[in-house]
Amino acid sequence: MNSVKPIITIRDLRKRYGDRYVLNGVDLDVYPGQIIGYIGPNGAGKSTTVKIMLGLVGEYSGEVSIIGQSPDAGDVEYKRRIGYVPEIAEMYDTLTPREYLTFIGELYGLSMDEAEYKARKLMNRFGMEQVFNQRIASFSKGMKQKVLIISSLLHNPDILFLDEPLSGLDANSVMVVKEILALLAASGKTIFYSSHMMDVVEKISNRIILLDGGRVVADGSFEELKGKSQEGSLEQIFNQLTGFNEHKQIAEQFVAIVRGEADV
Ligand SMILES: Nc1ncnc2c1ncn2[C@@H]1O[C@H](COP(=O)(O)OP(=O)(O)OP(=O)(O)O)[C@@H](O)[C@H]1O
Prior knowledge:
Elements: E1 8-17, E2 20-30, E3 35-39, H1 46-53, E4 61-66, E5 82-85, H2 97-107, H3 112-125, H4 141-153, E6 159-163, H5 171-186, E7 190-194, H6 198-204, E8 207-212, E9 215-220, H7 222-227, H8 234-241, H9 247-258
Parallel strand pairs: 3-7, 3-8, 5-6, 6-7
Antiparallel strand pairs: 1-2, 1-4, 8-9
Helix pairs in contact: 2-3
The structure holds adenosine-5'-triphosphate.
InterPro entries: AAA+_ATPase, ABC_transporter-like_ATP-bd, ABC_transporter-like_CS, P-loop_NTPase
Domain ABC transporter: 8-238
GO molecular function: ATP binding; ATP hydrolysis activity
């Protein structure tokens, strides 16, 4: 790995909202071809880090370099080499996939014909040829998710940022998308995968980064993380490393309150 240059470098990244630091000195080197499972408790700072890398959040301290460029340098050229699937997407429901994907493709520098041609073919691969000209508003959650995945890949990006990309997908589609990610990584693309689905992260990532309280608290392959912990599954390792073991107690109190049985 060491002879290859990192495609993403982060040094002592800090970010605060008001008086509160949500990132407390994050250091990372990410190499081409890696599938990074980026995990951490709610509010750990995962989205904030990704948004900083995408240039969507500024006013941070430390160094961030994506494909040799700083997101806050004002140069948007590197963004053409990035794809992004947000967790909650602003999709233009009144548009059809043909209109939406052509529009996104053009934003990324494709010609209209090229974008439409590619979008149609990708939609067909997802079994959505019949709805290419239907309004997105009428789509199921999984169908919308597939359109989003296509929109992030139309321009053949080098780095892909994915936030819960399998959300809403059926079991068959999950298998297809996991395979797509593995093939993309094998061809040298870098994938930054944020998810709370530990079983999926455990299987698809070749490197797992655990963020807690705005700091990287674990970084390594699943096997390496397992070696450092007494626990077996990534879910258990996550619980251990984030110091959480009261799930039963919280659940019992919650249900007792729901049932009107306890005053906790
Ligand atoms: N625009 C903002 N203004 C103020 N605080 C914010 C803002 N954006 C994020 N935060 C805070 O920063 C912290 C980290 O948020 P972030 O969304 O990065 O967490 P996350 O790890 O992605 O969480 P989740 O797993 O729930 O998506 C949270 O405490 C959140 O409330």
